């Protein structure tokens, strides 16, 4: 844990008591606003996906409904799915078949309830936190709830009584088990650095160090981002769907709104993962180059500014999700499992040991040499503790990505064959094509 003297530069004023009726009213208002924005945003993400993919591929994208921009395309898709006939094959397990889409969708919304989206508001009735449920274990709550979404996918594959759907559900469960562990392990360094599991405290720790965690814990961020792609079943980790192999995977037998719930849950999980990455590694709602928002409650203007900054950070990661989908090819299944068990998990465990040893060493220096925690070179901009973590992080990034890996493992095109074996196979293929009767000879 970081010594308290590191954070002495910013004095946090304790929250004044909030009466019961402002608490209930503000919570209801936050629930209505957040989930309304969340649902509308998830619907608009389908339009963003199509527009960004069209931009990458040099097309126009949706432009028939809602003017040239196609802004009403999500509404048209929703009306179409509502009007479609609900098919219910005779061979399915009807109760579980109906329940599975809900189990896939609800956990994504529940996880969003504990993510802080703005600075606390110092209102006339008391301090109101910009989070629906400010749980002391919010971080652990997200890990627990987000892991439940896979049950909807597994049950959808099993209850469909279809071999392709069952294979998609089994793939999703294996993928979740493989990457859920790495995701949890990658965030332990964040908790070690913050000394707390409350998301607002993690945001304050990054603000007080004047360094985002992505700069001090880059490898944790990399592992978490890769695991987030796998957990949301997005390319290059969409093996549970894999249209070329499994038709549509676990939702092969679904139609109409039941089918729509699965893409909606995927986009909701994508938005939740993006908000979590922005919170844990990019300062969350913290306003850069400003300390006033970290002293406790602030005015309404700073609250709105912090919400806008959080929305921009979250939107950036959503764009990365979409960008990667239309840029990288799909992993092979053996590559998917090998990356999770042979690379991500050992790297996360080794990184925990290194970060814990580094923090212990810095704490020892702070106790033996008190001047280590006082102001000297650059301390008025970045605490010495942060500078030390930044230096260690740079060394580890160079060792992991530029010395040990060098594009051999962290690459979707990676294979076990050596360049010599590939050249030999190409020569054999060329000889066979030359001897083939269809070659024109």
Residues in β-strands, percent: under 5%
Structural class: mainly alpha
Which strand order does the major sheet show?
A: 1-2
Work out the helicity level.
55-70%
| Termini gap | 74 Å
| Total number of beta strands | 2
Mean pLDDT: 81
Please trace the helix and strand order, writing H or E for each element: HHHEEHHHHHHHHHHHHH
Which geometry do the CA atoms define? globular
Low-confidence stretches: 1-12, 374-380
What is the radius of gyration computed over CA atoms, rounded to a whole number of angstroms? 25 Å
For the record, the count of structural domains works out to 1
Q: Give the biggest beta sheet.
A: 2 strands, antiparallel
Describe this structure in words.
The protein starts with 19 loop residues before the first helix and ends in a 6-residue tail after the last helix. A two-stranded antiparallel ribbon has the order 1-2. The chain has one domain. 63% of the residues lie in helices and 2% in strands. The protein has helices at residues 20-57, 73-83, 94-112, 138-146, 149-159, 163-186, 188-194, 199-209, 213-216, 218-231, 243-246, 256-281, 300-325, 333-368, 384-405, 419-435; strands at 118-123, 126-130. By secondary structure, the protein is an all-alpha fold.
């Amino acid at each position: 844990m970081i010594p308290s003297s590191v954070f002495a530069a910013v004095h946090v004023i304790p929250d004044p008591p909030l009466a019961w009726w402002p608490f209930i009213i503000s919570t209801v208002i936050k629930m209505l606003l957040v989930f309304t924005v969340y649902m509308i945003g998830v619907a608009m993400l389908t339009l963003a996906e199509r527009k960004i993919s069209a931009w990458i591929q040099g097309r126009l994208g949706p432009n028939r409904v809602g003017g040239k921009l196609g802004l009403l395309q999500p509404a048209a898709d929703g009306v179409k799915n509502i009007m479609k006939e609900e098919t219910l094959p005779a061979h399915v397990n009807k109760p579980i078949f109906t329940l599975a889409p809900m189990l896939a969708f609800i956990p994504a919304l529940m996880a969003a309830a504990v993510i802080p989206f703005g600075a606390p508001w110092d209102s006339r009735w008391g301090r109101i936190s910009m989070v629906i449920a400010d749980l002391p274990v919010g971080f652990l709550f997200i890990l627990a709830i987000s892991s439940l979404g896979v049950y909807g996918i597994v049950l959808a594959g099993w209850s469909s009584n279809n071999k392709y759907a069952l294979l998609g559900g089994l793939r999703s469960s294996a993928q979740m088990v493989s990457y859920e562990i790495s995701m949890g392990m990658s965030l332990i360094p964040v908790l070690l650095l913050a000394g707390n599991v409350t998301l607002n405290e993690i945001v304050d720790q990054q603000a007080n160090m004047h360094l985002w965690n992505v700069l001090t814990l880059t490898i944790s961020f990399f592992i978490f981002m890769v695991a987030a792609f796998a957990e949301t079943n997005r390319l290059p980790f969409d093996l549970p769907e894999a249209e070329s192999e499994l038709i549509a995977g676990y939702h092969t037998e679904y139609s109409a709104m039941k089918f729509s719930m699965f893409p909606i849950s995927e986009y909701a999980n994508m938005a939740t993962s993006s908000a979590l990455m922005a919170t844990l590694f990019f300062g969350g709602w913290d306003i850069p180059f400003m300390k006033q928002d970290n002293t406790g409650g602030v005015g309404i203007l700073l609250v709105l500014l912090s919400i806008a900054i959080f929305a921009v950070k979250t939107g950036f990661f959503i764009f990365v999700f979409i960008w990667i989908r239309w840029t990288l090819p799909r992993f092979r299944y053996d590559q998917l499992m090998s990356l999770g068990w042979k690379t991500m998990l050992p790297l996360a465990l080794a990184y925990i040991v290194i970060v814990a040893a580094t923090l212990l060493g810095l704490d020892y220096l702070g106790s033996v040499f008190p001047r280590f925690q006082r102001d000297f070179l650059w301390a008025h901009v970045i605490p010495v503790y942060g500078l030390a973590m930044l230096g260690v992080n740079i060394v580890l990034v160079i060792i992991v990505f530029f010395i040990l890996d060098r594009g051999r493992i962290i690459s979707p095109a990676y294979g076990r064959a050596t360049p010599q074996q590939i050249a030999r196979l190409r020569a054999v293929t060329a000889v066979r094509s030359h001897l083939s009767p269809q070659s024109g000879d």
